[in-house]
């Protein structure tokens, strides 16, 4: 009986996987044989990559490699325990203080991942009877946090603050929280943070910003979206990841002391997990210095974005209006997006095809990610390849019609 039930489950899962494959929705992993950089090796072949979130080109920086070795010598490899037992190192503590100063908030708390940070914050602060308001295109980790919290879940159309205001005005919840990506990971656009904060002040709500893709990239010194808009408020809970522009690993939340202390006491994804290796915290302290000092990396990104948009302006496919390193090219059809991605790979260029459920149905896209370590020649090579594929697609369409 048990054996039969097991076989039934395997058959059901196998059928579901076959269904995903038929719809071109089956995801596959690439195994890099080189460090994370703009030119990578996979199966012995070299590729030009436009698929990394290493926006500032720090993931393979010699100073950070040296810092990681120093950290390993000083602190060892593993932390050995959770933060609340004996895994909280002086390296963690110093990094938390540095991060709080960097973003201009009183306290910061390290998490192992951005996913754990988002779910930890929402579940620690919100519960049944509370209300959470989310942009329709928020990252999955924010949505999952709301579901786990069992708070009332309200979603408003992407960036439509008029609908959000109506939802806030109608809510009778005593505790309200507005959640938003600061830079949206699949569209590359920036949330209207001043307008969101104004609504939160008007309706006595908190505002949580997920700045995973803005930290290190936006604002003076790379201090993120709050600095980009030159705003500060005790209502803001700020989350950023440390494995993208910072080039290492992890995440942090910065906010008022009472909020951070509540997370220490109640955030299950913080309490019930082993602390990340202290050597990473030691390395991140060095990374913060590079982010702040080396403005040329952000200046280079601005130049690369402008060059790419110029290269792709004649394509039939729609390039979303993003000023960030995330440049989405909307293809629409899943099969065509996968086909174009494969054709680019055959030319030695990696650009991922993003499909549902990561993006809404009918909006499959190529997500082009730029890094400061890209060159203008790299961008020109991608532009040439996409124009050739566009022309080939036009000839196919013409032959079918004619």
Description:
This protein is an alpha/beta fold and 402 residues long. It folds into two domains: 133 residues, Aspartate Aminotransferase, domain 1, CATH 3.90.1150.10; 232 residues, Type I PLP-dependent aspartate aminotransferase-like (Major domain) (Aspartate Aminotransferase, domain 2), CATH 3.40.640. Helices cover 47% and strands 16% of the residues. It has 15 helices and 14 strands. The strands form three sheets. A seven-stranded mixed sheet has the order 3-9-8-7-6-4-5, sandwiched between helices. A four-stranded antiparallel sheet has the order 10-11-14-13. Strands 1-2-12 form a three-stranded mixed sheet, with helices on one face. Strand 6, helix 8 and strand 7 form a beta-alpha-beta unit. Helix 4 runs parallel beside helix 12 and helix 13 runs parallel beside helix 15. The mean pLDDT is 95.
Assembly type of the chains comes to single chain
Helix content: 40-55%
Superfamily at the CATH H level of the largest domain?
Type I PLP-dependent aspartate aminotransferase-like (Major domain)
> What fold name stands as the CATH topology of the largest domain?
Aspartate Aminotransferase, domain 2
């Amino acid at each position: 009986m048990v054996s039969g039930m097991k076989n039934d489950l395997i058959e059901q899962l196998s059928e579901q996987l076959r269904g995903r494959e038929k719809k071109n929705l089956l995801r596959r992993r690439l195994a890099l044989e080189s460090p994370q950089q703009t030119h990578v090796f996979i199966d012995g072949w070299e590729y030009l990559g436009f698929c990394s979130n290493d926006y500032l080109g720090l993931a393979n920086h010699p100073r950070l490699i040296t810092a990681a070795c120093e950290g390993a010598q000083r602190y060892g490899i593993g932390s050995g325990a959770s933060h609340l037992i004996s895994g909280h190192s002086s390296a963690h503590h110093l990094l938390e203080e540095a991060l709080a100063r960097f973003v201009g908030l009183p306290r910061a708390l390290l998490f192992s991942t951005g996913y754990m940070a988002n779910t930890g914050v929402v579940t620690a602060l919100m519960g049944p009877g509370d209300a959470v308001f989310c942009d329709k295109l928020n990252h999955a980790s924010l949505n999952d946090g709301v579901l786990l919290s069992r708070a009332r879940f309200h979603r408003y159309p992407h960036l439509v603050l008029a609908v959000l205001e109506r939802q806030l005005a109608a809510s009778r919840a005593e505790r309200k929280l507005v959640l938003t990506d600061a830079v949206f990971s699949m569209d590359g656009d920036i949330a209207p943070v001043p307008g969101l904060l104004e609504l939160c002040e008007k309706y006595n709500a908190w505002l949580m910003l997920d700045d995973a893709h803005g930290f290190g990239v936006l604002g003076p010194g790379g201090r993120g979206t709050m600095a980009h808009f030159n705003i500060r408020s005790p209502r803001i809970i700020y989350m950023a990841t440390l494995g993208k522009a910072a080039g290492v690993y992890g995440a942090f939340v910065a906010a008022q002391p009472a909020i951070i202390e509540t997370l220490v006491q109640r955030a299950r994804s913080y309490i019930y997990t082993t602390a990340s290796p202290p050597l990473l915290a030691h390395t991140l302290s060095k990374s913060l210095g590079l982010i702040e000092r080396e403005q040329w990396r952000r200046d280079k990104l601005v130049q690369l974005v402008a060059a790419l948009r110029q290269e792709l302006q004649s394509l039939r496919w729609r390039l979303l209006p993003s000023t960030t390193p995330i440049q989405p090219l909307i293809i629409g059809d899943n099969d065509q997006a996968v086909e174009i991605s494969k054709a680019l790979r055959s030319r030695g260029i990696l650009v991922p095809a993003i499909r549902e459920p990561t993006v809404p149905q009918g909006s499959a896209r190529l997500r082009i990610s730029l890094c400061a370590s890209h060159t203008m020649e790299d961008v020109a090579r991608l532009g040439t390849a996409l124009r050739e594929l566009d022309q080939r697609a036009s000839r196919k369409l013409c032959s079918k019609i004619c």
